[in-house]
Every structure is written in C-alpha cells, then in structure tokens.
Amino acid sequence: MASELKPFSIGPVRVGFPVVLAPMAGYTDLAYRLICRQRGAEYCTSEMVLDRCALIHGKLRSRLLCLDPGDHPVGGQLIGNEPEVMAEAARAMEQIGFDVVDLNFACPVHKALSRRRGGHMMRESEQVLRIVRAVRAAVDCPVTLKVRRSFDEADHECEAFWRIAEGAFDAGADALTLHTRSVEAKYAGRADWELLARVKGHFADKTIIGSGDVLRPADALAMLEQTGVDAAAVARG
Ligand SMILES: Cc1cc2nc3c(=O)[nH]c(=O)nc-3n(C[C@H](O)[C@H](O)[C@H](O)COP(=O)(O)O)c2cc1C
C-alpha cells in the first residue's frame, strides 16, 4: 500500500501526503484544521465562504478566514456565481494568505441552489468557466474547483462535468476535486469511484482529488489504489 502514498502537487504547492481534509461548512475552521494537521492532513481546505463575505471586513470574515502559521498549505473555498465578485474575493483570499483558492460548484444545500450557487452551477457550465477564467486572471496562487458528476441523478453522460473539467484545465486550473454523486443525490447512495478512475485516466497529467465515501482509513487507501487519483479527500470520515 505504501507505494500509493505519494506526494502530489497543486500547481507549485507540493503536498507530502495524499490524504487531505475536504472542505466542510460548519467544521473545517482554523481550530479543526489544526487538529487534522496534527493527525497527518498536510493539506486542508476551509469551509465554503460566500464571495461577498470575503470582501466585507467584519467579525464574520475574521472568523471564517483566519489563518495560523501552522496552517499551511491551506485552500480557501469560495462560493458564488459572478465572475467579477468571485475574482475580487479570490484576490482577497490570496492577500489574507491562503495558498490555494478553491471554487465550489458542488454544494447541494437548498439555500445555495435557490440562489444559483454551488451545485446549481453544474447547470451553468459556461458561467463556471467564466468564473474560472476571471479568478485565474485575478490571482497568482493555484486555482482549483470542486464539482459533482452532474446536477441530475439521471444524467449518466455527465456532459456538463466533462465540459467544465476540460474548460477549467484549459483555462489554467491547477486541480479539480470530484465528488462523484450528483447534486440531486446530495449524500445518498454510493459514490462512483469508477467515474473517478475514468476521469483520472482522461486527465492523467492533471491533479485530480477524489471525494466520496472515504469513511475509514482503508477507504482512502482503496480510493488511491483503485482510481489512481492524486489524493483522497476526507469529509464525513
Ligand atoms: C457537514 C458537511 C459540510 C460540507 N461542506 C462543504 C463545503 O463547505 N464545501 C464543499 O465543497 N463540500 C462540502 N461538503 C462535501 C464534502 O467536502 C465531501 O465532498 C462529501 O461529504 C463527500 O465525501 P464523503 O462521502 O467522504 O463524506 C460538506 C459535507 C458535509 C458532510
């Protein structure tokens, strides 16, 4: 198994251990990340932050976006739907000291979907790519995105996913995290690791992080081994 535990890179950011902390709203704040780092998570991502919140100086921004010298490399995750606002927020994240800006196009929560954010954006692939391009142009640090396989559960072709992935890498995205459930499925059913393997096979020279059903240590090792992804993200596990 040890042969699968290789370092990986997100652009110029090198991560020594390929089991990473997934973003989780309400959980992955600074204190939680520091505890996970003590347990071996070398790369962690913040909980999602609304782009506008990253731009308004105040208690919420200070709480959500606080960092510590021991909290690197760290990704800051943004959620939003307007290229200009996302770009400005990404610039703010970079200035605060986040090493990577991660863009959330995966959240299945009703509040996000009803406001055309998160997983809703799997239905607006062109707008996703406009956002990726705007953010890429706005920051020097690596840019990554978190997506689901599709919006509709019945969509087995996953056309929007492939369009977004191709377009995002063409636009200079440094990595992609794929949660292989549909947005509609939320957290129900099994994550589709076969799709993860196909995606990694297709984007062999790109950094792909797998998400979904890494609930025990053995699951992380199995995901790395069975799919070939560069890293396995731990969320509910
Ligand atoms: C409580 C909770 C909060 C989450 N918040 C976020 C979030 O803020 N951003 C995000 O991209 N994914 C979020 N997720 C999704 C996880 O990062 C992960 O993709 C998902 O849970 C699938 O992995 P798992 O089956 O191993 O739990 C959240 C998941 C949970 C359970």
Task: Outline the structure in words.
The chain has 237 residues and is of the alpha/beta class. It has helices spanning 30-38, 59-64, 83-96, 110-114, 125-138, 159-170, 193-202, 217-227, and strands at 8-10, 13-15, 19-21, 44-50, 74-79, 100-105, 143-148, 175-179, 207-211, 231-234. It has a single domain (2-234), classed as Alpha-Beta Barrel (TIM Barrel), CATH 3.20.20.70. The chain is built from eight helices and ten strands. It has an eight-stranded parallel β-sheet. A two-stranded antiparallel sheet has the order 1-2. α3 packs parallel to α5 and α5 (125-138) packs parallel to α6 (159-170). The two termini are 20 Å apart. The mean pLDDT is 97. It binds flavin mononucleotide (FMN). Residues 22-27, 47-48, 77, 104, 106-107, 146, 179, 191, 211-214, 235-237 line the site of flavin mononucleotide (FMN).
The amount of beta strand, in percent, is 15-25%
CATH class, named: Alpha Beta
As for the CATH topology, it is TIM Barrel
Question: What Rg do the Cα atoms give?
Answer: 16 Å
Level-2 CATH architecture: Alpha-Beta Barrel
The domain tally reads: 1
Shape: globular
Main sheet?
A: 8 strands, parallel
Which spans have pLDDT < 50 for at least 5 consecutive residues?
A: none
Please tell me the overall pLDDT.
97
The CATH homologous superfamily is named Aldolase class I
DSSP E strands, number: 10
Determine the oligomeric state from the structure. single chain
Structural class: alpha/beta
Strand order, sheet with most strands: 3-10-9-8-7-6-5-4
> Count of helical segments?
8
Ligand identities: flavin mononucleotide
Topology as H/E string?
Answer: EEEHEHEHEHHEHEHEHE
Give helix % range.
25-40%
